[in-house]
From TrEMBL:
Originating gene: Nfu_g_1_023754
Family matches, as Gene3D superfamilies: 3.90.320.10, Zinc/RING finger domain, C3HC4 (zinc finger) (3.30.40.10)
Protein name: Zinc finger PHD-type domain-containing protein
One BP annotation, GO: DNA repair
SUPFAM superfamilies: FYVE/PHD zinc finger (SSF57903), Restriction endonuclease-like (SSF52980)
Family annotation (CDD domains): PDDEXK_lambda_exonuclease-like
Organism: Nothobranchius rachovii
């Protein structure tokens, strides 16, 4: 399960390094640009933000922006390595985030990303920034209530049916594959346990409703066979 990041490795690739190195430059340019037309503008960084009403959802926008005229919003910055020199040729690239009018494509992953930012941070707008050595684009994107209405229940269902069970059992954690695990819940050996006399499978007392260890005991599968 990729979401569990069991096999996470450091992404020491040029595109990631470029984005990390240029983000602060782009953020400062954004702040300077927006300050010209927004009173009392303040741009700050933030870490992981968790939505209190749905704590399984979190996001990490590249900035929190506030001003007296527009209130609070979030900032998402992209410094595309492929087009780091300029955006020339990007409009012909079907995988690029901007369309021919240099507007964020509603079908692009980044559009979904900033909608999550807005929902989690409880704001109504996101300033989407694309920075290259020659161009600097800022697009203000509003909250897409219809998209959120359609996707949030799916996210809830995925969490309950897939992520939460894995958080509890760590069934697919490669680090635990070599450890003995309960055949019923797949969690590793801890607390009181019992082995089936026939198949030698391992079970927690609580998983098979045992309080005291019997002299002879068979699991349900073996007892029925």
């Amino acid at each position: 399960m990729d979401i569990m990041q069991y096999n996470k490795t450091t992404l020491n690739v040029p595109s990631v390094i470029w984005g990390e190195n240029m983000e602060q430059t782009a953020r400062q340019q954004y702040s300077d640009f927006m300050s010209k037309n927004h009173q009392g503008l303040l741009v700050s960084t933030c870490g992981l933000v968790v939505q209190p009403s749905e704590p399984h959802l979190g996001s990490s926008p590249d900035g929190i922006v506030t001003c007296t005229c527009c209130g609070k919003g979030v900032v998402e910055i992209k410094c595309p390595y492929k087009y780091r020199e300029s955006l020339q040729g990007s409009t012909e690239d079907p995988k690029f985030c901007l369309d021919n009018s240099l507007v964020l494509k509603p079908s692009h992953t980044y559009y979904y990303q900033i909608q999550l930012h807005m929902f989690v941070c409880d704001v109504n707008y996101c300033d989407f920034v694309v920075w290259t050595k020659k161009e600097f684009i800022v697009q203000r994107v509003g909250k897409d209530h219809k998209l959120l209405q359609d996707t949030l229940p799916k996210a809830q269902e995925a969490f309950v049916s897939q992520v939460l069970p894995e958080l509890l059992t760590r069934r697919f954690d490669p680090a635990l594959e070599s450890q003995r695990a309960c055949k019923f819940c797949r969690r590793p050996d801890f607390g009181k346990t019992i082995d089936c006399n026939k198949c030698s499978s391992h079970f927690h007392y609580s998983c098979v409703n045992i309080r005291r260890k019997p002299t002879m005991w068979s699991c349900l599968d073996c007892a029925e066979s």
